[in-house]
Input
Amino acid sequence: MSNDFEQQLVTAYRRTRAGDQLEDNSLRLRKTRQLLLNHPPPLEPGAYVLVVQSETAPYWLSLHNGTTVGRSDDAAIKVSGKWVSGVHCCFEADGTDWVVVDQDSTNGLQVNGNPRARHILREGDAIQVGSCLLIFLQVRKNETMVD
Amino acid sequence: MDHITHESLLIRMQDIQDGQAWDQFHQYYRTLILNFARSRGCSGDMSQDVLQESMITLTKVMPNFRYDRVKGKFRTFLLTIVSSRIVDAFRRERKYQEWRTDDNEQTPILENTAEEWVSNWEDDWEHEWQQHLLMHALDRVKKRVKPYIFESFRMYVLEQRPAAEVTAALDISENTIYQHRRRIVSMLQQEVEAIKLEIGEV
Output
């Protein structure tokens, strides 16, 4: 009988139980992976959102500082629906990060199902604006090169 | 998951259409990545971000990944991805703090020391991996023994409850508890060796 072995086991067990109590996002990640599978991201480095709307086939849009989403004809990503404001949210570059900012929309902005006024984007984040889903992704230089 | 991540699973994952392989991989590595991120000081939310971004990065990288055991272990490659995602998570957290306080309060990491910060993580990652291996072995043993035997082990060894409490709860003798303990520890040690053999570490 190894007491060291048992002690390692107890430590691992406690830490795993703590980890298990975190929310399991695997379902959302699986959906995102499926979308990426069906719509491979562009190869050119940059920040993108995959725009998923019922009216059109999903497409990748390259983000620029100030890219807007909303009902307005001027919005870069035009989304219809009574829950969507004229300019609902916009994307801002902040150093190497990208931030999605609610533009005082009537019905608010949701990222990964949570209400957000201003959110630094992580790859794979799902932004919901009315019926439109936007999946954020960054393509970095040489990222897919594996030695 | 009955099969630990090994060459065949990694090869299957090069085809990102193989959803089952990706689900297996996610299930298998989820706890390892979350625990490692937590051990580096990430909050629960930050750890979830690290997991999410690591998986998305792998989605982009795996189609070009060629598994070559001679060149190095997959988990070393994975550490590179996870480390950079942890650094990203801290950078964002610092930005959030700046938004909240506007006093430029700094989180434990500065961008210009990130490389130095992660340079000695290999040992900790290895330690995390060993713990992960133990939990995987425990899952396997749990499936091999009768539920009450595992339960006595869980209560007495893992939860460290007094023997009297276990005997009362399961209606078994104290001596039986010790027998279960010896038996399961022995099985666990065998399973750890079996897993190492499967992933080519023996």
Observations:
- Residues 50 and 85 of chain B are 5 Å apart (CA to CA).
- Chain B has a mean pLDDT of 85.
